[in-house]
Amino acid sequence: AMTTIGDLPEDVLVELLSLLPARDLLRTCRLVCAQWRYVVDLTTLWKRKCQRDGFYRQSLDRSISDWRIFYMLCQLKRNLIKNPCAEENFQHWTLDDNEGDEWKIEDLPGAHGNDMPDPTVHKYFVTSYGPCFKSQLITLEKEGYWNQLMDEKRPEITVKDWYAARFDCGCRYELTVRLLSKDYIILEEFHPEPVVIEQWSDAKWREISHTFQNYPAGVRYIWFQHGGQDTQYWAGWYGIRVTNSSITIGPQT
Question: Rounded distance, CA 91 to CA 101, Å?
Answer without folding.
Answer: 19
